[in-house]
Design a protein that fits this description.
mainly alpha
């Protein structure tokens, strides 16, 4: 009977841990993301959606601005996961590649800008602790991680462009390479 009781307690404990995590999200990340969403939409309303679409058009002109500059600025200003929303200003064709670059950038910038992705800071700190144990600089690691990340994330976004072209051809669809303004 003790085994059954311990199993039932452990089973319910699993769901209690899930519920505790859910409540921590409701008092932690969810309000932050909601406020960032409100702030971003307010800023877009002040600047004007047409001007923001022009930023998207400008960014779409070459892979460096699409997959290096725009992901950096949106991650730095909005953090993860809100930075993904900047992809809405890009043409449909480039959205998969932007998201690929953006999601990767949110990880590789943690050492220098921990506010971008605080939920995964433990990964960087685990590596940084080993570097510090060796007597090396954590900031040196953070800057190298950021710089390599910028280049590799932009390359990953660009490679995703080729994948998108392949899938479009395979599926017989055509995605727009210009920003469509919905009114």
């Amino acid at each position: 009977m003790d085994y059954i009781t311990k199993f039932a307690e452990g089973f319910m404990g699993l769901f209690q841990a899930g519920a505790d995590t859910f409540i921590s999200w409701m008092t932690g990340i969810v309000p932050v993301v909601l406020m960032l969403l409100v702030a971003m939409n307010a800023l877009i309303a002040l600047i004007g959606e047409e001007k923001m679409n022009k930023v998207g058009e400008f960014s779409a002109k070459n892979p460096l601005t699409r997959y290096m500059l725009l992901p950096f600025l949106s991650a730095f200003m909005l953090g993860n996961p809100m930075s993904m929303s900047m992809g809405r200003f890009l043409p449909e064709y480039y959205k998969p590649s932007f998201i690929a670059a953006q999601m990767q950038f949110c990880h590789t910038s943690n050492g220098v800008f921990p506010h971008i992705n605080p939920g995964e800071l433990f990964v960087y700190l685990g590596i940084a602790t080993g570097i510090e144990t060796l007597g090396l600089s954590q900031m040196d690691l953070a800057v190298r991680y950021l710089l390599v990340g910028l280049v590799m994330n932009a390359l990953g976004g660009w490679v995703t462009d080729f994948t998108t072209a392949f899938v479009c051809k395979q599926q017989g669809i055509q995605l727009s390479k210009t920003v469509q303004i919905d009114k």
